[in-house]
Amino acid sequence: MHTSPHPLDPLLSRQSSNALEDPAPEGADLDLILDAGLRAPDHGRLRPWRFVLIRGEARLAFSDCLVAAARDRQAPQAQIDRIRAWPLRTPLLIGIGAQIRAGHPIPEIEQMLSAGAAAMNMLNALHMLGYAGMWVTGANTYDPTVNAALGFEAPSRLVGFLAVGTAKAPSPDAAGPAARPDRLAHVVDWSGPLGAS
Ligand SMILES: Cc1cc2nc3c(=O)[nH]c(=O)nc-3n(C[C@H](O)[C@H](O)[C@H](O)COP(=O)(O)O)c2cc1C
How many whole angstroms from 134 Cα to the centroid of ligand 1? Predict the structure, then answer.
């Protein structure tokens, strides 16, 4: 039975937010969030995690970089306008990449999953410290020009960006049952092979 306060409350109440404002974490808070990312599980101790902090004035150059890539992809103007504005209204962006070792006995998918686990740990950590964020990908994450600008050459690659700041308006039902999927729709108690009998 879940009674409040419960040790898992921070995990169960995390919610993504794309309506962000200052402050973003910095200093000791940011260090803790990054360290939480570095506690992700990692098969083979490959440490594939790479975090690229984009903040302050650098967001202008990043916006220009995203716009140039979107133009090269011949994205529609409305999308280019959204792409241009996004870094400028986001207090802190963290590009999360996986430094992939190709041909390693640890499959590439596991190296990617470890980078994803780092992203999740950071989302939880920043929520626990009172900040908010959202994991976003979109075409820019898969664009080789954007990857190269952030230091990722294939097979290394971005797994997405964390948009980070403080939520403008925390949702009142973040910890409520409405925010959670039906557990029964996602869980089975396995008792033998499934499929055609
Ligand atoms: C790998 C990954 C990529 C995502 N990319 C986007 C994205 O580009 N745009 C978007 O609106 N949501 C994206 N999302 C979804 C949001 O991060 C978020 O999970 C979703 O809005 C649900 O909110 P919640 O985390 O509060 O349940 C992505 C999620 C994941 C895991």
Answer: 6
In total, how many domains does the chain have?
1
Assign residue 49 the CATH number of its domain: 3.40.109.10
* Pocket residue to mutate for ligand 1, from 136, 142, 180, 186, most atoms within 8 A of Cβ: 136
Burial class (CB in 10 A: 0-12, 13-18, 19+), 169: exposed
pLDDT tens-digit profile of 130-148?
999 999 999 999 999 999 9
CB atoms near residue 183 (< 10 Å)? 7
Q: What is the pLDDT of residues 41-74, one digit of tens each?
A: 999 999 999 999 999 999 999 999 999 999 999 9
Range of the domain at 45: 36-168
* pLDDT value, residue 167: 97
Environment class of 152 (CB within 10 Å of its CB; exposed 0-12, middle 13-18, buried 19+): buried
Ligand 1 pocket, mutate which of 135, 141, 186 (most atoms under 8 A from CB): 135
Q: How far is the CA of 138 from the centre of ligand 1 (A)?
A: 10
